[in-house]
Amino acid sequence: MTDQKPSVLFVCVHNAGRSQMAAGWLRELAGDRVEVRSAGSMPADQINPVAVEAMREESIDITAEQPKVLTTEAVQDSDVVITMGCGDACPFFPGKRYEDWKLDDPAGQGIESVRPIRDDIKGRVETLLAELLV
To answer: Is 15 in the active site?
Structure first.
């Protein structure tokens, strides 16, 4: 019998800020206990440098990540799908757990505005992790 670890997909439009910070937090807090993915409905060319800076302040390095396009397979392969403002672009599959996190978009904002978004995401990820690892 295999213990399959839960998998979480974070989705936002550009996969450059919110979803990357959420994935970074979950990787940091869960270690290898959760499979973490992120994607965007219209991926940007690069991760938001202010999001990278905000996460670096928490000693989490997301510089190696790249925005990825949202695929049907990524949704199918995930137990939990967290959307962050991608609207109806995310495919829906019965039996999956879906949550929509209402978060400000860090695009074009300075570090002072991105820190509260980062901290909000951390709290939500901590709650999610506690629910997944019961």
So the answer is: no
84 is catalytic: no
| 63 three-state secondary structure | coil
Q: Considering 90, 103, 114, 117, which one is annotated as catalytic?
A: 90
Nearest Cα residue to 120 out of 11, 35, 15, 17: 17
Q: Tell me: the pLDDT tens digits for 22-71?
A: 999 999 999 999 999 999 989 999 999 999 999 999 999 999 999 999 99
| Token reading at 22 | 């959420």
102: helix, strand or coil: coil
12 in active site: yes
Residue 2 CB coordination number (10 Å): 4
pTM of the model: 0.93
Type of residue at 38: S
